[in-house]
Every structure is written in C-alpha cells, then in structure tokens.
Please model this.
Amino acid sequence: MEKIEEYLYRNAELYPGKRAVVCGSQELTYSQLLKAVESRAKELRGNGEGNGKPCAMRTVQNSGFLTDYFAIHLIDGIAVPLESNIPQERLKEIERLIAETEAPDKCADILFTTGTTGKSKGVMISHQTIIANGENLVQAQGFSEETDFIICGPLNHIGSLSKIYPVLIAGGTLHVTEGLKEPGAFYRALGNAGRHATFLVPSAIRMLLTFSSEELKKHASALDFIETGAAPISQTDMEELCRILPDTRLYNTYASTESGILCTYNFNPTCGGEECIAGCLGRPMKHSGIFITENGTVACSGKTLMLGYAADRAATESIMKEGILYTNDCGRIDGRGRLHLTGRRDDTINVGGLKVSPVEVENAALSHPSVADCICIAEEHPLLGNQLKLLVVPASGEKFDKREIARHLGSRLESYKIPSLYQRVESIKRTYNGKADRKYYRQKS
Model:
C-alpha cells in the first residue's frame, strides 16, 4: 500500500457495516466513511485543492476532520492540520510559509511542532512515513480489528494523529473525544463493547490517578492497553498504573514529529511486560533504528523519519545527514537493546561545573506524597552562578514543607542535585502534550 487511504478502501470492502468512527452520538461505518471522504474529495478538487498543494485546516475532534484529512490525501494534496483556536495572524503566517514550500513528491502532511524548544517548525511527513508508523504500532502493540481506540488528544499533533494509522491498518474503530476536560466522556467510551486502548500523555495520567483512580480501576477489565509518551512519566505514576491496571498492557513510547514512532516498551510486568523503569522506552520497532552518538545523544534512522522542515533547508540540514536524524535527547542503550532517556541536552542545568538533569530531580520529588506536580529550573545567583529551584504544586490537603521535600530528595539524589530554593505554585506551565514548558520558565528567569 502506498497511502493510508488504501486501507480505508480495503476495510469498506471487507467490513462495510463495521463501525469505523465514533464521535459522541455520531457513528460512521467503513462504507459510510468512504462515501463521505469521496464526496469531500470531489468538493475540494472543485475548489482547486490537491495536486501537491498544501491545504491548511483547523482541527476539530470529530469525523469531519477525518473526512477532510483523508480527502486531501485522496486528491494528492498535503494536509496541514492546525489548532482549532489558532490566532488569525498565526494562521496567515503559516499559510504564507506553506505557499512558499516546495514539498517533495509523496509529501502527505505538514505538522507544526509546539515550539517549546525554539520556534515552531512545519515538519513534512511522507505517505511512506504514515504507513511505517502505523505498521510499527500494529506489530509492537498488537492493534487488531477488535481494537476500539479512544483518542483524547488534539489530532493536529503526532501523538494522537498517529493512532489513526494503526487502527485503519488493523481494521479497528476510532473513538474520538474532546479530551479529558470532562473525564466522563472517556469513561463512557470505555463502557462500550470492544477491546479498548488509548494514548494518554503523562499529565493526563496523573490527572486520572489523582482525581478518579477508583473510577479508572472499575474500568480496568475494559482496557486492553494504554500508550504514553511525548513527555517523561514518573516512576511513581508508572507503578500506580501497574497496581490499578494489572491486566492492561502499558506502553512507554519514544517518538517525535521529526523522527516518527521509533521504540515502545510494555512496563507492566503483570501483563506480559518487563521491568517498570522510568525512562526506559524499549527497543526499536520494525521500520526504525537508533544509536547513541559520541555526545551521548540519540540518533535515529528508518522509514519513519520526516522529509524535512517546510521552507527551512538550513534547519533540516542541521539535524539530518545522510539519512540519519540527530536529536537533542540524551540517552543510553542497555545490554538488552533497550533505549533509556535521561533528559534533553538543551535542558541540562550546569551547577558549579556539574550537570544536572531536571527530569531526574522532578521524578524524585514526585515520589513524595505531598507533591502533586513540580518543575526544576535554574535561577541565577550573583556569586555562585546557577542554582536549582524547585517549583511545587502541593497535593490536595497536603502541607507545603520545603525542608521535608529537601530531606526526601537527599535520600535519593547526590547533594549537588538537591535544589537550594523551593517555591509553592498553583500550577506548572505545560504544553498541550504534557511537557513541562521549560522555554516559558527560561524566558521568565
């Protein structure tokens, strides 16, 4: 198959009456979805779209987005999904950029990154990449025609968008929700028949564990597997998930918009997994390869890599060389071939000549019952240079005791990794996918 839409045609022939998409009370069978896509493709072609032309579209969490997305591919256009509430000026800026873009042949999508580590970039994705990502997930995580996959995140980013691919390849069902702002919709979806699976960023997992762990436990038998990724998940949350969901496969996945979906790892030992280890992301999947560079960073290869950045050859060449994509993620590969991440090279904080991974500090802090959320940042000292500061969101009903937190960290970390400053805050600034927005805090300091 050369396009993911070919699986839509296959499924409409093999399972015409099977549910393909569920959005609230609306359901479409594979036959109905294909008819809607073909009708929309005809309309878009009549409007001058297609034939290698990028088509910007505001993302909505319903079947209309899926219809547009597949239809654009069907007429050889390039889908450019954007936030539903994108500011008008930003929309015009993106439309100018993609109009200047000379996309390579077989470019399917241009996906814009969040820009947490710099300016947002348009990542060009090929049809081959889409299918390779889908096949990676089908083989490694066991998608099947019985899979009812609940999409909770925005469909304009790789985390949730990429789950369309394995569901279509396997002939399963997509269950699209508006997210976890109203957790009841998520639990209602779990109440439907089928082998349910979902992708949840770590911040969403923490929210469910904090506010509705008993409800999650009640639905344990309905969950075939959960995938997490996009940001580090703490050891504490991993262990709690394993306790609440002993019969659910729990995957930690290594992926990015630029690299595609590379590695995954079932960390639930009671459901066919290996050890429960924070930072372990498993082995490369079917279409992917990884290695560690001399600088200790992860480099990757294979069919899932991007084509390049839209209208930014210099940025592309700065990270892609001879079919290898070089990341800023620091990591190692253990004796069993599993990738372990230790943070990002540009996030490392230099304290008195010693390098500290803020993620390590945050994971240690999150293991204390009084800490609901936190971020470790650098703050300048007039004499000492950088010093570590921990911003803490206390757990509900818990007292903020910085001395107790410092003692707890001292039992788990080397002395130079223990923050000297502590501050209570109401919330931690995060991106849509749950990553701590370190760029925001660097700009504030």
Summary: The mean pLDDT is 92. The chain is about 30% helix and 30% strand. The longest strand covers residues 371-381. The domain at 349-444 is CATH 3.30.300.30 (GMP Synthetase; Chain A, domain 3).
